[in-house]
Fold each of these.
Amino acid sequence: MLLPQLDGLDVLTVEGISQGGELHPVQKLLVETDGTQCGFCTPGFVMAMYAFAQSTEPRNDAHIHEALAGNLCRCTGYRAIVDACKKIPLPDFDPTSGASERGEDALRYASGEHLFFSPQSVDELLKLRAAHPDAIILAGGTDLGIRASKEREHFPKVIFTGKALGLGEVRDDKNALVIGAAATYTDALPLIDKHFPAFGALIRRIGSRQIRNLGTFAGNLVNASPIGDTPPCLIALGAEVMLASTRGERTLPAEQFIIGYRKTALAKDEVVVAIRIPYLAKGARFETYKISKRFDQDISATIGAFYANGDEIRIAYGGMADRAKRAANVETLLQVGTPSLIKIEVAMAKDFTPLSDHRASKTYRLRAASGLVQRFLFEAGGAQSTRIEAL
Ligand SMILES: Cc1cc2nc3c(=O)[nH]c(=O)nc-3n(C[C@H](O)[C@H](O)[C@H](O)COP(=O)(O)OP(=O)(O)OC[C@H]3O[C@@H](n4cnc5c(N)ncnc54)[C@H](O)[C@@H]3O)c2cc1C
């Protein structure tokens, strides 16, 4: 995170959770269950457990795994850590109280030649964008942060969307779910789960909770990475991207928003204000499958998203081209019946010429992507779900 993103927040590190020389209860539990070995990963686990202790989630395997995912132990010590988590008592206070307190004044932070704007309304955001077309827009910073820390990029002017009133809203509209551009994955998950359970299951595999508490759909879309997880889903679901500038508003289908490798149709003075995902029609089916080397906290080698409502079929992939893209030949094939795997593979090879890289070879990607079509057809035909998380 960039420093001014922390305005109005407390920062609590692992050194600060024990009081008066006493270990915090989650630390005591780790000691009691022998949940620490070499100790290298322990601070991360302790902080994940500390956050889990503030939540009212059930202390069962599914919730514990989700809370801990992203913390890697190389001494194979997970079982003891999970045992410690099962003993964490539920909080005796309301963890949501006070969560929506806001500062009153817009923050304008300057340090050396760096300027950081934190508009408090969408109006103010659009005016700042128009006045500073050279500024970079910052949402959660989970992509930009890497550019700053790993690639040593400097961002002399930053406009932060996180404090603009209303931009973090996630709401049920008449025909669609509307996700504000500053809403995080965590903010959107309850309604995503309700309307698009397969999408919810995928979101739980984006980074870890810490990343999902910051990262946004808007950031994922504008980043336009060919291996980003939400673009194929948003394309298959027929989502729209709502854009605004001081000149006015416009809406683009997600499919037309990403126009090339890390390139979008966003004009210099525009920002994304929301993403609209139409609800599934009765009888429509949506599934998405992510293939990565590790289940949690890993980037996709390929990801397929499938929407079918009678003849209306949309299939989109990530990891197969320079951007998230529809598989037009495969879609046509499915319109005329249930094809064999060989036919799917032939159509897939017409749609895509993927790269070979450290995540997967070209051959693997084509085969895996074809297999996912079959998986979708099997499941649509009533076969049992093969989702690891459902087993
Ligand atoms: C450890 C880790 C794990 C990750 N795992 C995954 C993963 O599994 N799958 C995956 O897809 N991604 C993953 N990511 C990437 C990242 O978390 C996502 O792409 C996230 O959605 C980015 O959102 P953000 O709000 O953090 O974007 P930011 O970093 O704030 O911004 C990203 C881009 O979007 C632009 N932008 C943001 N908001 C707007 C707006 N309203 N209008 C115009 N432009 C805007 C910014 O200028 C920037 O170019 C991971 C990242 C990390 C660090």
Note: The longest strand covers residues 271-278.
Amino acid sequence: MKKIRIGVVGVSRGSTYVKVFHRNERSEITAICDPNDINREGAQREIGLEDSQCYTDFDEFLKADIDAVAVVTPIPFHEEQVVKALEAGKDVFSEVTMANTIEGCQRIVETVKRTGRKYMMAENYIYLDFIQQWKKFVDDGRIGRIHYAEAEYVHDIRDRLFDCGTRKNESFWRTYRPPIHYCSHCLGPLMFLIGPDDYVVKATGWGNKNTIVPDLWPSTIDMQVALFETKQGRIIKILRSQVTPRTPHIVTYNIYGTGGSLETGRTPGYDTVGMRYFEKTDKEMVPMNCNGTKLDAPIDIKFGGHGTSDYTGAQAFLDYVEFGKEPFTTAKKAAELTLPGIIAHEAAVQGHVWLDVPHFE
Ligand SMILES: NC(=O)c1ccc[n+]([C@@H]2O[C@H](COP(=O)([O-])OP(=O)(O)OC[C@H]3O[C@@H](n4cnc5c(N)ncnc54)[C@H](O)[C@@H]3O)[C@@H](O)[C@H]2O)c1
């Protein structure tokens, strides 16, 4: 069987996908690209690439022997690199979020349509094992129609927003990313559970204060809360912070339906004990394992991170490229999971007004 040849651009977080695609029997890494010598040489050594397979220039990298590109660079580069890769005839697996502007998302959606290439946003949290298990409960009708959902992602990454010693920020791309812009780890799994046909149409946001880090960088806003209204009338609440002191970080999900509810636990890590209540069969809330890690997975599956979701998400991309099996996060859905965060921040800045969220068909 011919392996899918993958090139990875950006090999900090991208070094995970170098390993995941390298060790997968269906794919191979044939090129990497990163101007940072330490990161590039580290990834090169990790899987034994030739010097000729390692690039510092993105346009040269696109000429390498690759079928697909994994874009794992800082978000401000996504629009340009994704569009160039699609136009060069490559399928694209792009890290979250899709882009940092409305126009960037629109351009990617249009380029996918025009080129006919495949695009998948690598929203790995959808592939946390318990989210996949919850989806079966939802599809079996165990919790009825979801009418409300919420998620929280609080992760103190002050050291990735600015230099905590000098308080300078020149080499920190996340400095200008408002917390709610990075909402797809929350919104992605919730919309996956709700189903493919619904999407956010209106957004409002709260949170425009910097007291923990008293500088006016949007990334250091203490907390942001977004409320979303969906096309089919659902309400979604998301809480985000990148500076609030809380160690370790936490990611939680709650969904409420007309026939029951599901919620994760609040203990550290991706494997927690949550609760479920199915009105038809349970007398009251029942403790339930919410494992981000697929327990019966072969050992190889653990080469990624975030439970086993990095590996499983990469598998979904290979299924898309090889068999045309559409993942949840095609370009249209990636825009639907990215734009609400961009609009919620704008709504917070304008004094928590409600704003329409653009939608691209
Ligand atoms: N899904 C997840 O759980 C998860 C976790 C972490 C990061 N991310 C995403 O991964 C992406 C990268 O984040 P990171 O933490 O690795 O950032 P980072 O700043 O740690 O590293 C970025 C890497 O990209 C390289 N780079 C920068 N500009 C480049 C360019 N123009 N061409 C090629 N390489 C370039 C840098 O040299 C560096 O090695 C972002 O989109 C981020 O949102 C996702």
Note: Residues 9-13, 33-36, 39, 58, 72-75, 77, 95-96, 124, 173, 306 surround nicotinamide-adenine-dinucleotide (CB under 6 Å).
